[in-house]
Amino acid sequence: MQTSEIVIADDVAGEWRVPVLTFKGSDPKAPRVYIQAALHAGELPGVAALHAFIPALRAAEGEGRLLGDIVIVPKCNPIGAGQWLHGELQGRFEIASRANFNRDYPLIALEARETLLDGIEALSAADQLKRRLLHLALGADLVLDLHCDDESQLYAYLEAAFWPEALDLAESFGLDAVLLSDGGSTAFEEAVTHAWKAGDLGARAAWHDGRISLTMEFRGLRDVRPDLAAHDAEGLMAFLQRRGVVSGEPIRREAFSGPVAGLDYVQMIDAPKAGTVLFEKTFGDQVRAGDHLATIITTPGFPENDVAILAPVDGAIVTRVAARFVRRGDNLMKIASTALSNKPRKPGGALED
Prior knowledge:
The chain is of the alpha+beta class. 20% of the residues lie in helices and 28% in strands. A nine-stranded mixed β-sheet has the order 1-2-4-3-7-11-9-10-12, with helices on both faces.
């Protein structure tokens, strides 16, 4: 294993340093891998998973079982990690520009990869970071961006073209659900997929064979525990074994029976009124149309003003908001269903900002 750093000049003074771990495989024909965690700097289950995974990967390297090259950025957003306001980490958006750290990645063809670094010193620190991370990822065949939700099941976002070949991913991690995008957003994993499709590789009908770019949602913000980190590290190892990056029989396989839903079939359950939320259902629950999902207390002490939130369709709750006070229009839950959603969404994989 080799350790290096991405160095980014700050917009005010000093610089940001991003550690990068590189493993060299023994087989040049094996898939190349890129993994990063905490792009939204406060989402730490992926960091914990990599903390457990890297020693296992070093052991595999020492035993001669590492076939493909692997690049890991265990905590990829020091800018977001340095943003604290009134004692709370603000790691999702850059405070200066209000830009989401997981949006606005350049959409280029794979052949133009090196242009990402042209004149990069003149860009803002956040844009430098985005281009450096995307440049690293475009050197790989398997790209995993490790995130988490507020409160949620273990699930993945990936473009529909990768399914059902990505069943091995679901079985390796023991996923609870898979959400399929149609491409077109500027999120990190979508920018990688765009690069593969936009150039010479995309001219081939099977451009996605042997490749995958995805966002892993490692449950919720508070799911940072040793047992979960070990479980997810085993999932990473099992997936890389199945894809021929590490030799040996996959160490785990869990039959996948969860929902697979295109994003147009994900029901966004939003709050019609502001107030305190009392949840009746949680993530992982199967619900029927009309089931009582939650109550919003709009006027404490006057239950006649409570607002009942009912399930619009049959389905499985994938995520739930962590806040217990919400504004009108805030998302409360996402339900994977077989019915088309009547809520508009942004192109590609974007269900929210």
